[in-house]
């Protein structure tokens, strides 16, 4: 019997009808997808006065972790800027530091923020905590070089979409548990939080072609977890496993009503509230996974992106006043 699903937003449904969708994801298809060109950066920077810098930090095993740093070229260096630390999406198996970079670059425009994007290693070549550890090392580099970057260490926001949202959540848990560094806020955009795939929304979006289905999600998690099962899976990798969600920075979570991650994302927000924390949750009716990244011109996408920016404005203002 076909599982009932929330209807797609009419405009998004029409746009999605013209997009070739995957029906499965495996090693051969992944290899083909990785051959596709990266997000072209030049068109995104052409109309912006931005200074770009490429640096590399080292993972624990010495592997290089590339970071791209985007700084407003006309920024007032006498006033420390907020920093957006960006983790890209791609199911933990694809993408690079320029994936969905248009999202944080909007915050560079709006707030004069320094944007740092990390090229964490991908599964299945990297497994376990390697991906989240890479992201954490990038965060430590930002804090250590805050003065050089012109960044206010009290206004560092970790942010990411999909797999990057899950990694942002993992980095935030790691920073809390290691007592360093202080993170002002975390923005989790349709985050990939739970390897178990047991939710109602996970079952609803099983089978058939899609932007990101239950089966694709299972492939991504198998790639990153390898042979880890049960209690062996670290909460820093699958943040929904964290028993304690207290003492986290203020959190923004959004998701679509018509996507795999809907229920694990809403549950994460609920558990933050239950632990006495602050979270703002938006479930966009009729939104599929990554709708606003794929079709930013759609009305629902514009609303979702504007709502995030409004939230960031409030958070950064409060931290600045403090």
Structural domain tally = 1
CATH superfamily: Alpha/Beta hydrolase fold, catalytic domain
Low-confidence stretches: none
The tally of helices reads 12
Query: How much beta, percentage-wise?
Result: 15-25%
Which fold does the CATH topology refer to?
Answer: Rossmann fold
| C-alpha-based Rg, rounded | 18 Å
The largest pleated sheet is described as: 8 strands, mixed
State the end-to-end distance.
55 Å
> What's the CATH class, please?
Alpha Beta
Pairing-aware structural class of the strands and helices? alpha/beta
Instruction: Walk across the major sheet and give the strand order.
Output: 1-2-4-3-5-6-7-8
What is the CATH architecture annotation?
3-Layer(aba) Sandwich
Commentary on this structure:
With 322 residues, the chain is of the alpha/beta class. It has one domain (10-321): Alpha/Beta hydrolase fold, catalytic domain (Rossmann fold, 3-Layer(aba) Sandwich), CATH 3.40.50. The protein has helices at 10-16, 27-34, 42-45, 102-111, 130-144, 146-149, 163-177, 200-204, 214-225, 262-274, 291-294, 299-321, and strands spanning 50-58, 64-72, 81-87, 114-118, 151-161, 185-189, 250-256, 279-284. An 8-stranded mixed β-sheet has the order 1-2-4-3-5-6-7-8, sandwiched between helices. Helix 5 (130-144) crosses helix 7 (163-177). The longest helix is centred in the C-terminal third of the chain and has 23 residues, at 299-321. The chain is globular.
């Amino acid at each position: 019997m076909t599982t009932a699903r929330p209807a797609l937003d009419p405009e998004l449904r029409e746009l999605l009808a013209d997009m070739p969708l995957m029906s499965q994801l495996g090693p051969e298809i992944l290899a083909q997808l990785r051959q596709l060109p990266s997000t072209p950066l030049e068109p995104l920077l052409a109309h912006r006065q931005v200074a770009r810098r490429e640096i590399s930090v080292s993972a624990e095993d010495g592997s290089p972790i590339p970071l791209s740093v985007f700084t407003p070229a006309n920024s007032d260096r006498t006033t420390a800027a907020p920093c957006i630390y960006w983790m890209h999406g791609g199911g933990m198996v694809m993408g690079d530091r320029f994936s969905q970079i248009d999202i944080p670059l909007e915050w560079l425009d709006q707030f004069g923020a320094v944007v740092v994007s990390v090229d964490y290693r991908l599964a299945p070549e990297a497994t376990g905590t390697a991906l989240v550890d890479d992201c954490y090392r990038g965060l430590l580099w930002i804090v250590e070089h805050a003065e050089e970057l012109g960044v206010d260490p009290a206004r560092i926001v970790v942010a990411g979409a999909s797999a990057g949202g899950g990694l942002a959540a993992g980095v935030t848990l790691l920073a809390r548990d290691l007592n360093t560094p202080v993170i002002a806020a975390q923005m989790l955009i349709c985050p990939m939080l739970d390897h178990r795939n047991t939710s109602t929304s996970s079952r609803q979006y099983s089978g058939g072609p899609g932007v990101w289905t239950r089966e694709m999600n299972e492939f991504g998690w198998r790639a990153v977890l390898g042979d880890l099962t049960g209690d062996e899976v670290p909460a820093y990798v699958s943040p929904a496993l964290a028993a304690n969600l207290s003492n986290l920075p203020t959190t923004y979570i959004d998701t679509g009503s018509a996507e795999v991650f809907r229920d694990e994302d809403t549950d994460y927000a609920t558990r933050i509230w239950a632990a006495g924390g602050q979270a703002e949750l938006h479930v966009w009716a009729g939104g599929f996974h990554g709708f606003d990244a794929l079709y930013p011109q759609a009305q629902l996408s514009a609303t979702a992106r504007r709502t995030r920016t409004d939230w960031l404005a409030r958070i950064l203002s409060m931290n600045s006043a403090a």
